[in-house]
Amino acid sequence: MYKEKGNEKGTEYILQKSIQHIKGIGQSRAMLFNKLGIFTIGDAVTYFPRDYEDRGRFKTISQMSDGEMCSFEGVIASKVTESRPRRGLTIQKVSVRDNTGTIFAVWFNQSYLKNAFRIGEKYIFFGKVNKKNSYIEIQNPVYEKADSENKKNTCRIVPIYPSTAKLTQNIIRTTIENALELVSGKIEDCLPQYIRSKYKLSEINYAICNIHFPKCDESFKMARYRLVFEELLLLQLGLLSIKNSLENSKKGIRFKKIAEMQSFIESLPFKLTDAQMMVFKEIEKDMESEKVMNRLVQGDVGSGKTIVAVLAMFKAVKSGYQAALMVPTEILAEQHYKSINEHMSKYGINIALLTGSQPKSKKQEILEQTKDGSVDIVIGTHALIEDNVLFERLGLVITDEQHRFGVRQRNTLSKKGDNPDMLVMTATPIPRTLALILYGDLDISIINELPPGRKPVKTYAVDNSMRERINNFIRKKVSEGQQVYIVCPLIEESDAIDAKSAVKTAEDIANCFSDLRVGLIHGKMKQADKEAVMRGFVEGNLDILVSTTVIEVGVNVPNATVMVIENAERFGLAQLHQLRGRVGRGSAQSYCILFNESRSQVSRERMKVMEKTNDGFVISEKDLKIRGPGEFFGTRQHGLPDLKIANLYRDMDILKSAQEAALEILSKDRHLEKDEHLKLRNKIEEMFLSKLKDVGLN
Ligand code: ADP
Ligand code: MG
Predict the structure, then answer these.
(1) In ligand 1, which atom is closest to the CA atom of 558?
(2) pTM
(3) 8 A C-beta contact, residue 417 and residue 393
(4) Is 508 exposed, middle or buried (0-12, 13-18, 19+ CB in 10 A)?
(5) pLDDT tens, residue by residue, 429-464
(6) Residue with CA closest to ligand 1 atom 19
(7) Which domains does the chain have, with CATH numbers?
(8) Would you state the torsion angle of the CA atoms of residues 554, 558, 562, 563, taken in this order, to the nearest 10 degrees?
(9) To test the ligand 1 pocket, which listed residue (267, 272, 306) has its Cβ within 8 A of the most ligand atoms?
(10) Which of 266, 268, 270, 583 to mutate to test the pocket of ligand 1 (most atoms within 8 A of CB)?
(11) From the alpha carbon of 556, which atom of ligand 1 is closest?
C-alpha cells in the first residue's frame, strides 16, 4: 500500500543524514547518541526534551531565597579558591557581587575552574541558591559571560533531555542546537495546509525549533500542540489505513444467514440482554459481509461476553466452517469447553478441548480431528497456536481476555485459516476514544449492560484494626457453605517490600483456620500444580483459596462469595475490579474486602472509588487519570509505535481533534494518493514499519 518513497534528493534528505554531519560529533560521540536511539539528524531534532528550565527570570542577590533555582548577573569579586575537605572532594569557590550584595559561587571537583574567571568580569549565573542566615551561595551554577553574543545555557528557557550518564545536558543541548541550524527552514511540512488552518497548527520548522528552545511559554504551547497533534494524527491515520487495507486486500468469508439461529437463542437458559443482542447483530453483519471481520468486544466483567462468542461460533459452524476460541489459562479453557458444550451439544456440533497438559495420545487425536474437519469448534490455550495445529476450514477465530495476548499471537492463530473472521474479547473496558487508538485497527462493540438480577458486590475498604472481624466474617461465610478468595500482591516475603505474601498468608490462614481447607496458588508454581489447586477450588474441595493475581482472569466459581484483597493499595484500580469480578457470579450476595495499609490521601480516594462503583468503565477512567495509559497497558503490547511526545491520556482533547482530522483526510483521499497527502503517507510508513510486518502487510 505504501510503495512510493519520498523524494530522496529533496530537502527532507538532510534529515536522513548521519549525526556525524553535526558540528562536534565524531565517531565516539555518535555512538553515545546512538544509544539514545539518535542516528540521523532527523532523530536529533525530534529528540524531544523531557522538561524545561526557565533561566530567563533574573533576581538580584538580595531577592534570592533559600532553595530556589535562579539566574543573576554579577561581577567576579575574588580569585577562585580551592579547598579539600576530604579525599576525593575539592571545592571551588569564587565571590560574585551585584549592586545588592555578595554571593559565593560554589562547585565540586571542578579544578579546571581555578583559572576560569578574572576579577572584574561580568557573568550570568544560574543555579540553586543555598541561604543560611547572612551566608548565601549558589551551587554548581552554569555560567556564561554577560557580553557573549550567543548565550546557550542562560537567559532563556533551556530544555532538559532524557540522557545517559556519558552525555551531559550541555552536549546534548549544543548538538541539538547545531542540528537545528543545519535543518533550519528546510523541514517540509507533512500536514496539508487545510488541516493546519482548520486546527490552527503552527508550521513545522517553527514547532521543531520552539519545542527545543521556546521563545516564551506561548510559543512552547503552540509548538507542543502542533507536534502532539501530528503524532496522534499519524497514529490514527496509520491504524485506519491498515484497517482499510486489511478490509480491501483480503476477501473474507461470507457466512450464511442461519435459520436455526433464532431457535438456538431461544434454547439458551436465559434471555439475552439488549446489549448482547445488539453486539451480536454487529458481529452477524460483519460475518455476512465479504470483508474480514476484525472486531473487539468490550464488556465489563460478568457482562456475558462468552455467550456472544458462542452465537458467533454457532453461525460459523452452521455455515460450514470451523471456529477456534483461545483463552489464557487451562481452567478457563475447560470451563468454556463445558459450558459451550452444554449449549451446543443438542445441535450436533462437535467441540474439542486442546491444552498443553493433555496426554499426548488425546492431543494427537484432537489434532487429527481438527485437521480432517470432524471437529467443528476447538477451545484451547496457547497450545492452539503451535505449528502442529492445522485446520481443515477455519472460518472464525476468537480470543478471550485479549489483554493476555499480543497482536502476534492473535495473528498466528488467524493464519491457520484462509482469512478467517476475527473476534477479540476484553474485560478491561476503556474509554471509547482511547480504545479507538489502542485498537485502531479493530471495530469496536460494547456490551454496556449487565444481565438483570445481579447483586452488585458489596465492597469495603478496611485497615488492620478490622482483621479479627473480617476473619470472623470469613468463618461465618464458610460455615454457610460458601468459598473465599484471599489475594496478595507478592508470592514470597520480601525485605524490600512491606506487603503480605501469598505464601506467608496461606500459612497464617491455615493456622488461624485449622479446621478449614486452605489452598495456595501463585505464578511460580508449575502449571499442573496450579491447575490442580484451582480445580480443587472450582469443585468445592477447598474453602479458602489464597493466591496472587493469577486468578484475575475469567474463571467462574459461583459459590465463591467473599474476596479479600491484601495490600489493596498496591494494585491498579482496573486490576482490583478484575479481581472483584471473580465473586458475585452466583445468586448469593457477595463481598469484597480491601485491606488498605496506606494512609495516603490518594490511596483512600482510590479505595472510595472501588466502594462506590461497580462500573468497569468508570473505574478504568479513574485509573487512567491516576496512572496514565503507558503504565495501564504498555503501548508496546498492543503493537503500537512508540509515541515521542503525545500522552494518550493527558492529550485526550487533542486526540479527539486528531481523530476527526484523520477521518476528514481519509474521506477525501482514502489511500492518501493525492499530492498534498504524500508526505503524510511516507511518514506513516516509517512510523508503522513493524506494525505492518505484524499484520502481514509488508
Ligand atoms: P464475561 O463477560 O465476564 O466473560 P461471562 O460470559 O462469563 O461474562 O458471563 C457471566 C455469567 O453470566 C455466566 O454465568 C453466564 O452464563 C451468565 N449470563 C450471560 N448472559 C446472561 C444473560 N443474558 N442473562 C443471565 N445470565 C447471563
Ligand atoms: Mg469472560
Answers:
(1) 14
(2) 0.68
(3) yes
(4) middle
(5) 777 667 777 676 788 898 988 888 888 899 999 999
(6) 304
(7) 17-55+156-183 (no CATH), 56-155 (2.40.50.140), 261-447 (3.40.50.300), 458-613 (3.40.50.300)
(8) -10
(9) 306
(10) 270
(11) 7
